[in-house]
Amino acid sequence: MRATKNIFEPKSSRVIRILLSNPGKPWTLRELAVEAGTSLGHTYAVCSALIYGR
Question: Is residue 53 classed as helix, strand or coil in its secondary structure?
């Protein structure tokens, strides 16, 4: 799986914005991808970057 190049790009920021606007919700990757309108792979890459700093 490729790491996202920039978590501040518009597509990546949609994932982050959803996470920040619903801090108590336990998201699955699939739910988050659907809500953000991004692919499952891109959502995984953004979440990995946030967790592991990649």
Answer: coil
pLDDT for res 49 = 93
Total count of domains within the chain: 1
Closest C-alpha among 34, 35, 9, 12 to residue 22 = 35
Name the one residue in this structure whose structure tokens are 């518009």: 10
> What range does the domain containing 36 cover?
10-52
pTM of the model: 0.85
The DSSP call for residue 44 is H
First to last CA, the chain: 12
Q: Are 34 and 23 in contact (CB under 8 A)?
A: no
